[in-house]
Structure formats: C-alpha cells, structure tokens
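Whether sequence alone determines local backbone shape is best considered at the level of individual chains. When preparing material for the folding task, we compiled for one chain both its residues and its backbone structure tokens. No coordinates are needed to read the tokens, only the vocabulary itself. For completeness, the protein is quoted in full, as a sequence line and a line of structure tokens:
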Amino acid sequence: MKLRNLLLLSALLCIASGHAQELALAANSNRAASTGNATAIYDGDDSRTAIYEYTVYGEIPETHPVFEEEHYLGKAISAKWNTFLANYTHEYNVEIGLSSSGTEIVKPAIYNAVENANKYVKKALKKGQLTNAKAIDLMGHILDCANVLCFENDSKSFEEAAKKARNGEEAVRLFEQVKLVKM
C-alpha cells in the first residue's frame, strides 16, 4: 500500500513540475515580448533589427581596480574597459605546479569577441575609417553589452554567435545587433 501511494505521489509531482515549467516558460516569453515603458540605451544602426535584447535594471555598475588600465579612447571608455576586465578575468594563486597564478576567463567567447572588436576599432580609427566620437560610441556600446552579458544567465545563443565571429568586423556587427533595454 505504501509503495502504491509513493508511486502515485511521484506521478503527481512529475505532472505538476511539467505544468510549472510550462507556466514559467510562458511567463518568460510574455516578459520578453512586452517591453512596456522601457527605454532603449543604444539601438545601434537604425537599418538593422536587434536580434538580441537584454534588460538592464538601473545603471551598469563600474568597478575600480587597484591598477586601472588606460584605454586608447579616453577616460569614459577606460572605466567600462576596466569593468570588463574585472568581470571577465579572475586570477587565482596556485600553490602546486610551475606557475604561481592562474587566470580564469568567464564566458571566453564573449571575451574574445570584445578583444577582437577592440582591435578592429583601434585599426579603423588609425586608418581614418571611424571618427573618434563614433569609435567611443561603438566601444561604449560593446563594453556595456559585454558587462551586462557577463551576469546574464540566458546568453548561450549570443555566445554561440560570438564563437562564430571570425574577426573584429564580424564581432562589431554582432554587438550592433544587441539592444539593451533600460527598465
């Protein structure tokens, strides 16, 4: 009798958890579909449609490491760049082995895409293909996206696309397809 009750209870739990997952998925899709009174931080090029949309609650926090690295585009980008480096790289002391420390990169596909985009923007700026103001806007958007995506749980599709970006130009185009929505 107890075994029968246990089997019945487990069957009911399976049915209930399946229904709960369906409700959660429906609520998540409704939340993603409705942008309500949200305002866009950056839409990229108006002729392109946003493929990836992420919600930003409040302001994107900036970290201030002990040794700040100066970015070639100036102080406004340096703060975002240092936040990016602090979010994506974690250094650990290693007591065993030949090296004395190890560095872990969080979400390496996104990290590499930002690095490639940074090199591309620097070269385009030197060649005169971009103005300084456009380069600052572009790198600001790329770093804002990266700093938001670092803490985003559902970034697998973007990470897969970032892996496929073979060069800096493709990485820049990928980040231009991201829309950050401020709530």
